[in-house]
Design brief:
Elements (H helix, E strand, L loop, with lengths): L1 E4 L9 E7 L6 E2 L4 E6 L4 E5 L4 E5 L6 E3 L3 E6 L12 E3 L6 E10 L9 E7 L6 E2 L4 E6 L4 E5 L4 E5 L6 E3 L3 E9 L6 E3 L21 H10 L17 H6 L33 H16 L2 E9 L1 H18 L5 H15 L6 E3 L2 E3 L6 E3 L1 E3 L2 E3 L2 E2 L7 H16 L5 H4 L4 E5 L18 E5 L2 E8 L2 E15 L5 H16 L2 H5 L2
Parallel strand pairs: 22-26, 26-27
Antiparallel strand pairs: 1-8, 2-4, 2-7, 3-6, 4-5, 6-8, 9-18, 10-17, 11-13, 11-16, 12-15, 13-14, 15-17, 19-29, 20-21, 22-25, 23-24, 27-29, 28-29
Helix pairs in contact: 5-6, 5-8
């Protein structure tokens, strides 16, 4: 019988959610047939059968499981087996016997870039009896939340309390190893536990999974306000996503001596704990400001030539290539030409060295329902207009569907962000380390400008280039932005490369 485990999907990913089982327990599956869809906090991917046989599911849909966990088994044979009915058997020993052994549980390594974790929640109390592989705590890093299973049968002795931050390898708790289990312990076989609303309640009843807990925390919703539809009533990620904020109306009476001022607005407020992701972003942004000599230079671009060219050929472009002709391909082509001429803008610092790139991997900021992601267009300098537009559409679609892979979001030598789609007139974009520069696009507004001694109305866009002054000099940054301006105001140069 082959065990199917959750595969490693990236250094920073420590857990996945079983989004969907495509096969049922007892089904006959073929080798390499897709049997489930797994979802991480960054991407969704398919799980295939390593061999042919009969599927035996051990983890239910909606469960959050760590990397390396066995989620199903495939037994050799061609006929489906009938699932074993639910049975309950009481433990054979009334009192567990101490063996004298003590198992020390330490913080496991959860990724190369993670150096510490926080004990988020203890699911067992000090002195409780715990079973091997039973989840006893939830541990949170700056990138993910994962469950901590017991490493032995025995009595739990907690060392690190809730909200304590420990380094990798730090002591979390000890388990006094015993033989046997308490008389009150029962074991169940194959049939899943009843769902919320029916049967006996367990720890899982009304308790959110790690992924669901993060969503509820971001929304400011208590788990007591959400009904769980997962195994044993556990609150799944889907339950948390559907949950709505319910703000109770409160009334406060003013003191008798104070005048009553009628107003139509409430004065409710709430405190929300920052998520690990938000704390990581905050640290990263402050680090960029503190560790780089960041400056921003500005210029303006007359967008009329690009807009006229686009209006003239967009229908034929769409008919021939099947994708729309947007502004992003013009800006990407202009940036790639300018980066070749000013390579320091396309470089990065690595210790005492400067790494120069002879290629242009352009990171494009894409807004999705889950937040802002920055996938990378590889070797953008060698792509045509239609290839750039097709790649933007592909990456944006995968971003909205939550199916971007880690490889598609890693790397990049230069970034482009477009705040203009949200109405931004001017901004100073912050660097995306280790990159040394980022171009900010803004909205297009008709403004009076002087052309050949005459005041005319033109569609003007303000451009902003933020750069690291440690590696990019003022002459290079200004010249780079002027070159981008020249190419956009005479788009024929983009086609000819002059």
């Amino acid at each position: 019988m082959a065990q199917v485990k959750v595969p490693t999907v990236g250094e920073s990913i420590t857990e996945v959610t079983i989004a969907n089982w495509l096969k049922k327990d007892g089904d006959v599956v073929k080798m390499d047939e897709v049997i489930a869809e797994l979802e991480s906090d960054k991407a969704t991917f398919e799980l295939t059968a390593p061999n042919a046989g009969v599927l035996k599911i051990s983890k239910a849909q909606g469960e959050v499981v760590p990397i390396g966990t066995v989620i199903c088994e495939i037994a050799e044979g061609g006929a489906a087996t009938t699932p074993t009915p639910k049975t309950e058997t009481k433990a054979t020993e009334a009192t567990p016997k101490a063996t004298g052994g003590v198992k020390e549980m330490k913080v496991p390594a959860v990724g190369e870039s993670i150096t510490e974790v926080t004990i988020s929640t203890w699911l067992k109390k000090d002195g409780d009896f715990v079973k091997l592989d039973e989840v006893i705590a939830e541990v949170e890093s700056d990138k993910a939340t994962f469950e901590l299973p017991a490493e032995a049968n025995g009595i739990l002795r907690i060392v690190a309390k809730e909200k304590t931050t420990l380094p990798i390898g730090g002591l979390i708790c000890k388990i006094e190893i015993t033989e046997g289990v308490p008389a009150t312990t029962t074991t169940t076989t194959s049939t899943p536990t009843s769902k919320a609303g029916g049967g006996d309640k367990t720890y899982a009843s009304g308790h959110p999974s790690p992924a669901a807990a993060k969503i509820l925390e971001e929304k400011g919703i208590s788990s007591s306000q959400v009904s769980g539809t997962g195994v044993s009533g556990r609150i799944t990620k889907e339950d948390a996503t559907k949950a709505q904020v319910s703000t109770p109306k409160t009334e406060t009476k003013a003191p008798a001596s104070a005048p009553v001022i009628a107003s139509g607005g409430g004065r409710n407020k709430r405190n929300e704990k920052m998520t690990s992701l938000r704390k990581t972003i905050a640290k990263r942004l402050v680090s960029v400001k503190n560790e780089t000599a960041m400056l921003t230079t500005f210029n303006e671009v007359d967008m009329k030539p690009v807009m006229d060219l686009r209006s003239k050929y967009k229908d034929k472009f769409k008919e021939k290539y099947g994708v729309g002709l947007g502004f992003m391909s013009f800006f990407t082509k202009a940036v790639c030409i300018a980066l070749k001429e000013w390579p320091a803008v396309n470089a990065q610092i690595n210790g005492d060295e400067v790494i120069y790139h002879d290629y242009c991997d352009v990171s494009i900021a894409v807004s999705t329902p889950r937040g802002l992601v920055v996938p990378v267009i590889r070797n953008a300098e060698s792509l045509s207009f239609e290839q750039i537009e097709a790649e933007v559409v592909r990456l944006a679609t995968k971003g909205r569907d939550g199916k971007l892979s880690i490889d598609e979001m890693q790397g990049g030598t230069f970034s482009i962000t477009n705040g203009g789609v949200f109405g931004s007139m001017l901004s100073t974009p912050i660097l995306n380390p280790p990159q040394s520069a980022i171009l900010g696009m803004h909205n297009i507004v008709e403004r009076p400008v002087v052309k050949d001694g005459q005041v005319v109305i033109r569609p003007i866009m303000y451009l902003a280039l933020s750069y690291d002054h440690r590696i990019v000099d003022g002459r290079e940054s200004v010249s780079f932005l002027v070159r981008v301006k020249e190419l956009l105001e005479d788009p024929g140069r983009l086609i000819l490369g002059v």
